[in-house]
Amino acid sequence: MEKFIKLKSIPAHIPLMNIDTDMIIPKQFLKTIKRTGLGKSLFYEMRYDESGKLIDEFILNNDPYSKSKILLAGKNFGCGSSREHAPWALIDFGIRCVISPSFADIFYNNCFNNGILPIIIDEKSIQELYEYSKRKEEIEVDLNEQMILYGNKKLTFDIEPAKKKRLLEGLDNIGLSLKKIPNIEKFENSMNKTKPWI
Amino acid sequence: MSKTLYDKIWDDHLVHEDNDGTALLYVDRHLVHEVTSPQAFEGLRIQGRQVRKPKLTLAVPDHNVPTTDRSKGISDKQSKIQVDTLRNNCKEFGINLFDVNDKRQGIVHIIGPEQGFTQPGTVIVCGDSHTATHGAFGSLAFGIGTSEVEHVLATQTLIQKKSKNFRVNVNGSLPAGVTSKDVILKIIGTIGTAGGTGYVIEFAGEVIRNLSVEQRMTICNMTIEAGARAGLIAPDDKTIEYFKDRPMSPKGDNWTKAVAHWKKLFSDSDAKFDKEVNIDAKEIEPLVTWGTSPQDVSPITGEVPDPEKEKDKDRRIAMYRSLEYMGLKPKMKISDIKVDKIFIGSCTNGRIEDLRLAAKLLKGKKIASDVSAMVVPGSGLVKKQAEEEGIDKVFKNAGFEWREPGCSMCLGMNEDQLSSKERCASTSNRNFEGRQGRGGRTHLVSPGMAVAAAIKGYLADVREIN
Asked: What is the pTM of this model?
């Protein structure tokens, strides 16, 4: 997994609450057996009209936002289906950081398995970043310092230390958990005695 | 120290815990389907990793399978590749598969309990958010992403942080025409789609106790629509009775031991909950959703709300967007909303009791002439049972199509979709934009309300059907 340390980009703002994973990547694109190639279908129904033409008004269809690596969004981002195709589509498009007042649980976890940093900050701060984004100037996200820098201002954010470490080092969770095989075996042996029906 | 049901199951599955509370949790049961698993198996192959406990995983294709005649195979190329890939992966890694033409094939959350693969007190995961369904049996069940599917396959564990405890008590008794679908819609309408974020919700109270286990599944199924990690209902005698003699249930001495364990699965009377909400059953009416979020609920006797009366700005914007998408005007009567399609099925309402209830209301009646309607049983065994009871004939005689089992129009990954602006009364779980097909308009309802809408051709009150 690619490490996440610092990221600079002009952020794109989608001012909607409850952006669900069906919106992020609709069902017809879930038939793939790969993780890549979903970026062109990100936000498909908001980005393309029924004939498949780009919708001019949608922010990600307009420069410089078409190259945004940071997304600003309303609360409860990523609600709905557990599909990891949602973070896969974001990352394939180039978005590596989503900033929202709150995230849905499964989507939030999925981000950390794909090198995406989900940042939780209050709505007022999002509004401020949005106002700033209209200047079409870059903002910087510094994970180590837990800081968002824009112009001469800065915002701080919270993140669980374990999740932060994971992104900073690009760690492979499975590899780490496999080191705990002795604990898992011990657990299984004890379970075989106490719950033999499992 | 007193514990909640969630605390008990959590503690019972803790393999390891770091100082910061990051835990490695043992997974007893893992369900796999064709859409969210190919990349997980591919990951194992790339890393040269094995499946740690193949017997603890059960696989079934359900999301994109056709619900029409399957004897000639799957015509959609991409769907066929996914189903073939699942078959090959199961063979390579030694995983039990109920294939497309197996009588036991069906929606993953219906076949788990049906087979006794689901069991009380277990930790159950699946790459599908509606895994919460299994919580109805007192198991800690939740949806995971594909990377986590891979983690479970490789280690039989999952990295988790403990959620907080939330209890929803539904007190009193349900009025006529009100079902568990209305109860969960009422709960989501009350606490909101993010009301459960960060929590595991235990459902309790007289109403929950009086529900059948299948009705309880509808409640836990939609817990995710309230944002919660999982929904839980303490097992009781009904639960134990349900599992007796299921193909994968414990047998003999193990059955006795298992039952003794299951009987200890309840929240202690003085257990502490971080949040608690009480719902009075007599205030619940048959409900429908009017918008594009499951929290957008209204009684069937009500009106489409007026966004101008909403104080929260973001919510007001969302309401306007929903109404435009749904093609509705503020203050119009819900019962004046005309429908084009009816869908009965899904992991929310595709079980035998749902079909029985719908058929009982439908018997001897016809659907409205300009409506098309379909029933998609939740599994091959549900379909078979229904056919033995003559339920299929009731539906067919009324004008419904009687289909093969699968997820079908709940998410429209196969051919079963709404066209743009088509309006559907659906017993499924999500009314998101485009969920049932691009531009399609979904109204979530109970099976009885779906029948009422089918007969009248409008969203209609099930209490007026006799």
From this structure: 0.97
